[in-house]
């Protein structure tokens, strides 16, 4: 009996060891970042049973097939969609165009929407005027009076014969109530959730999330930026009215944004909506622009390259507003080098936390930028959620891309990069007003209270997954 038990224990140990090696090898092959691979392998080897179980539930997925198939799907969507390319080459936007693999468009108009009140009012007006179709895409839609107002506006248009598609990257059990969604589908609104890699838990996907925010009406007007759909942007929050920015676009850039929505929709549902953005919208202004949409399915880390290109383009000024500051090493190096070149590098971050891990992790990066001559500014009035870049006096960008590793490598994101002094002047005025309400960080991490410094250093260890 004892010999049987010994053999049984040995067989179990061998099986656990084999599964640990298999899981470690899979983590090495498929993790998006080296830090992710190391984290999984350490967990699997140090706590084999728990580590293997957690990996097969949360970590194991067919990432390679997803990246290959999603990339092919996106390429087919944009094949031949040249758009209104500039008649004169745009050297300033050329790097961003190459990253996005799309042509620069000319003849665009941009209007800033500086808070939740302006944004939701402009969205309501545009939706009310829809005659053909509406594309809506959000990372978060809350079942509050703001979410219900959007729902009701879309239902009214759907009942009037307008075709409406809504993409919402909600997590199961944490998303909208069934009754909320049923009311929309009963009105003829098409609802879907973006699809990630196939995995054991199916839709429980913590990486490869779709963080894009888009509203497009009749292929004539488009909106994008940092706002989700929630009352927090109207001041109904324990940390104040979230400071965020959306932008309204007209002109040929609307087609590119529509195709990005269509690429997400066809992957989620198999339905190609590109016919609704087949025509290039008429010119509406004098701003050149390109829609840059980072994806974890790409060969290049477009989210990281977006910030690196901005740092290299800057000659005198680089202002960045971001709610989360946990940059990849390559991005941080580019920002530091820009500061060492004499560029006025300012990074504006929130002084209030929505997630304490990201809040403290950011502090651990402040000294890296400050030591090279860059500046960190902390916005105190409320939580700041905008994702905005200003480069010199002619380039600017608004979108959903945070200055962190998750946006750089793990999420689907969107931003419009613009060349035009009028647009840049508007962004400068907005950011200058925000900086007037902010304070510059003039001390090192070691000068903070010991517990704060400890929290920052520990939180930074989790930066690759924040």
TrEMBL record:
Pfam families: PLDc_2, PLDc_N. The chain crosses the membrane at residues 7-28, 40-61. Residues 206-233, 380-407 form the PLD phosphodiesterase domain. Its main location: membrane. The keyword Lipid biosynthesis applies. It is an enzyme of class 2 (transferase). It is a multi-pass membrane protein. It is found in: Cell membrane; Secreted. This is Cardiolipin synthase. It comes from Marivita hallyeonensis.
């Amino acid at each position: 009996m004892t010999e049987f038990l010994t053999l049984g224990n040995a067989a179990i140990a061998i099986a656990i060891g084999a599964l640990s090696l298999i899981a470690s090898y899979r983590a090495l092959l498929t993790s998006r970042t080296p830090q992710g691979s190391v984290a999984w392998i350490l967990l699997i080897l140090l706590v084999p049973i728990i580590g293997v179980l957690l990996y097969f539930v949360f970590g194991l997925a067919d990432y390679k097939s997803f990246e290959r198939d999603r990339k092919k799907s996106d390429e087919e969507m944009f094949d031949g969609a040249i758009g209104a390319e500039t008649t004169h080459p745009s050297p300033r936007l050329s790097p961003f165009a190459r990253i996005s693999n799309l042509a620069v468009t000319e003849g665009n108009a941009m209007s800033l929407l500086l808070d939740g009140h302006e944004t939701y009012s402009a969205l309501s007006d545009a939706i009310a005027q829809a005659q053909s179709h509406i594309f809506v895409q959000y990372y978060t839609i809350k079942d509050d009076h703001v979410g219900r107002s959007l729902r009701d506006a879309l239902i009214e248009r759907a009942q009037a014969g307008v075709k409406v598609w809504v993409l919402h990257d909600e997590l199961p059990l944490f998303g909208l109530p069934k009754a909320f969604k049923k009311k929309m589908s009963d009105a003829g609104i098409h609802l879907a959730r973006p699809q990630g890699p196939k995995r054991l838990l199916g839709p429980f996907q913590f990486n490869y999330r779709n963080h894009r925010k888009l509203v497009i009406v009749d292929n004539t007007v488009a909106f994008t930026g940092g706002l989700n759909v929630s009352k927090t942007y109207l001041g109904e929050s324990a940390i104040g009215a979230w400071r965020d920015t959306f932008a309204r676009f007209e002109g040929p850039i609307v087609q590119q944004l529509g195709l990005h929505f269509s690429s997400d929709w066809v992957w989620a549902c198999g339905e190609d909506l590109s016919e609704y953005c087949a025509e290039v919208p008429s010119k509406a202004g004098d701003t050149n622009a390109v829609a840059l949409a980072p994806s974890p399915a790409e060969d290049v880390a477009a989210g990281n390259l977006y910030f690196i290109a901005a740092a290299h383009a800057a000659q005198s000024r680089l202002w960045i507003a971001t709610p989360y500051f946990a940059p990849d090493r390559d991005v941080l190096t580019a920002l530091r080098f820009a500061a060492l070149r004499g560029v006025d590098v300012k990074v504006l971050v929130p002084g209030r936390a929505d997630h304490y891990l990201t809040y403290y992790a950011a502090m651990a990066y402040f000294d890296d930028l400050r030591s090279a001559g860059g500046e960190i500014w902390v916005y105190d009035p409320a939580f700041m959620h905008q994702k905005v870049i200003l480069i010199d006096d002619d380039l600017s960008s608004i979108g959903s891309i945070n200055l962190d590793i998750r946006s750089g490598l793990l999420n689907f994101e969107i931003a419009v990069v613009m060349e035009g002094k009028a647009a840049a002047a508007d962004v400068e005025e907005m950011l200058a007003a925000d900086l007037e309400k902010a304070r510059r960080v003039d001390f090192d991490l070691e000068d903070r209270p010991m517990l704060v410094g400890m929290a920052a250093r520990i939180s930074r260890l989790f930066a690759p997954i924040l």
